[in-house]
């Protein structure tokens, strides 16, 4: 199979909030990430274009109204969407892993004691989707969705990331969409350990004790868009996962 070009454009639907300050000790360095592939120097039809990030005011979505009127108020969902272009005639065996970090500091504070103070402040979630039979073309879209109850219970997303592989090759990794204080904490820890290269944010939060001790893994909450009410909206724009 020939290499595939993926030109990601990110649309993240959620809100960012401040992260706790962290110290400068790092218990252990995360495993080294695969070396990025320089698609700009590769063979024709495998050039790479950096993603474009939408503004924060487009980071939330209300439940779509398909038919009739509901007696309940429209709820707010977190929707994390990437679009990309492929130049190979067909692309198979593509895997996309979404990474999400939520901060419940405001949820815990506003509960007026109903939520125990030792409740994990942070929630780390992932979702892996697999795709095949992707035809050559532009504006293919893939999307992960966080249901309203999870958004209300576990707080605001403060970091979103995506890793894409085709076969065994990593073709794209997006780890730049983080709240400013999380980015600052990573830089401080890297500087204290004389490290020039920063780890991906999900490697950092899973290795740094001060965050780990306040974080819970919740991998059953992010879902494929096709399993939500958004599935019937612009259905032809989105890939169907296997």
Describe the structure.
This protein is α+β, with helices and mostly antiparallel strands and 242 residues long. It has one domain. 14% of the residues lie in helices and 34% in strands. It has five helices and ten strands; from the N terminus they run ββββαββαββαααββ. Strands 1, 2, 3, 6 and 10 form a five-stranded antiparallel β-sheet that branches. It has a five-stranded mixed β-sheet with strand order 8-7-4-5-9. A hairpin with a 2-residue loop joins strand 7 and strand 8. The longest helix has 13 residues. The chain starts with 8 loop residues before the first strand and ends in an 18-residue tail after the last strand.
Inertia-based shape? flat
Number of strands: 10
User: What separation lies between the terminal Cα atoms?
Assistant: 19 Å
Q: For the CA atoms, what is the radius of gyration?
A: 19 Å
Q: Quickly give the structural class.
A: alpha+beta
Regions with little confidence, pLDDT below 50 for 5+ residues = 1-7, 9-58
Helix content: 10-25%
- Beta strand %: 25-35%
Order of helical and strand elements:
EEEEHEEHEEHHHEE
Counting H and I runs of at least 4 residues, what is the number of helices? 5
Sheet with most strands: 5 strands, antiparallel
Number of domains: 1
What is the assembly state of the chains in this entry?
Answer: single chain
Overall pLDDT: 75
